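dumping this here so i dont lose it
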């Protein structure tokens, strides 16, 4: 995205503000795709302004149709007597939820949620429990939303067989001459390729349901109450599309229950924290355990492994192609990311019995978990 002038940012903010007071605008950090600002009027009222990255989301109108439908549905389902919130879009002065400036940049705005923050990293296990509750509630509330009303806004999203094809192409082309130093990682991925299509085959066989899924279930996409630590709101709905629940669960475990950072240079530090995984699983199943199909309950651990492998091969493919997609801050940054993910996947394999037993134990403890088909 091109840099914006202050005049352009103020023009976009004014497009969503119906008051007359002067606006103060401050950039907000945290997002890696869209640009975000906090806009505050003299009276103290606030809202969040965001520029949509059209290099990633090439059809912002379709994107906003998805988000508007989801938020309106959730607002009808959300009880009023609770601290939990739903993202609320602000309409522009000319109607609709999008503003397009003269340079072709697209903007949207959300109501500001007070006394709540997002955490980039897990600081306490209970944060992951609350994250599990938030995304479990998100799944439960959207269980009746018609999937056919959603449009896929990203190509081949969470489609592991296609990711593997792209990875193999990057290996074969080896355009930067980097494959030799990643030979062990390439072999690790290729040896496990038979498993990559398992979820897709069950979906096609009708054993797994296609659901409305968030597809980016990181802790950083849940707002937590600054006083109580309770989950308040699920944010970043850009990737909400038709998908598999086991992948939503898996992405949260991949990111939140790793003993090391996603880009830890020393991959020996990476591994599965069963304690953190249990915290998330508890919260998740408390909220949505009773909507799970038998295959979903059976394949939660597999979803975590598949998402870890998928991210590993995506990082490695980008490294082999010359770091063209993910931003890097050092040499071999994407290779470090890939090694960390593959080390996590390997540790999941070592701890598979304990991991799967923990999930089953959480299901047994959760009253009201029933079989749906």
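and the seq i came up w/
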């Amino acid at each position: 995205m091109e840099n914006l002038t202050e005049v352009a940012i103020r023009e976009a903010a004014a497009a969503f503000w119906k008051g007359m007071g002067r606006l103060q605008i401050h950039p907000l950090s945290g997002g890696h795709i869209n640009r975000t600002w906090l806009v505050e009027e003299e009276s103290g009222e606030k809202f969040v302004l965001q520029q949509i990255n059209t290099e990633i989301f090439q059809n912002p109108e379709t994107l906003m149709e998805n988000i508007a439908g989801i938020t309106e549905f959730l607002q009808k389902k959300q009880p009023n007597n609770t601290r939990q919130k739903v993202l609320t879009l602000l309409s522009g002065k000319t109607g609709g939820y999008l503003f397009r400036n003269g340079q072709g940049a697209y903007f949207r705005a959300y109501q500001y949620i007070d006394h709540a923050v997002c955490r980039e990293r897990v600081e306490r296990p209970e944060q992951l429990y609350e994250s599990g509750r938030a995304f479990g509630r998100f799944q439960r509330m959207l269980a009746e939303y018609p999937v056919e009303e959603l449009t896929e806004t990203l190509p081949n999203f969470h489609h592991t067989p296609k990711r593997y094809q792209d990875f193999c192409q990057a290996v074969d082309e080896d355009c930067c001459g980097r494959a030799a130093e990643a030979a062990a990682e390439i072999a690790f991925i290729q040896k496990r390729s038979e498993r990559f299509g398992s979820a897709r085959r069950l979906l096609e066989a009708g054993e797994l349901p296609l659901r409305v899924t968030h597809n980016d279930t990181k802790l950083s996409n849940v707002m937590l109450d600054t006083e109580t630590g309770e989950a308040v709101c699920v944010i970043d709905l850009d990737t909400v599309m038709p998908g598999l629940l086991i992948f939503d669960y898996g992405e949260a475990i991949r990111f939140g229950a790793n003993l090391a950072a996603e880009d830890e240079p020393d991959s020996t530090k990476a591994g599965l924290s069963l304690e953190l995984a249990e915290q998330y699983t508890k919260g998740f199943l408390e909220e949505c355990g009773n909507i799970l199909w038998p295959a979903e309950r059976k394949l939660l651990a597999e979803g975590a492994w598949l998402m870890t492998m998928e991210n590993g091969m995506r990082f490695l493919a980008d490294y082999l192609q010359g770091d063209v997609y993910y931003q890097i801050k050092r040499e071999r940054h994407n290779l470090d990311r890939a090694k960390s993910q593959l080390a996590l996947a390997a540790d999941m394999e070592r701890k598979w019995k304990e991991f799967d037993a923990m999930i089953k134990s959480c299901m047994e403890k959760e009253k009201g978990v029933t079989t749906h088909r």
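Confidence is low (pLDDT under 50) at residues 368-373.
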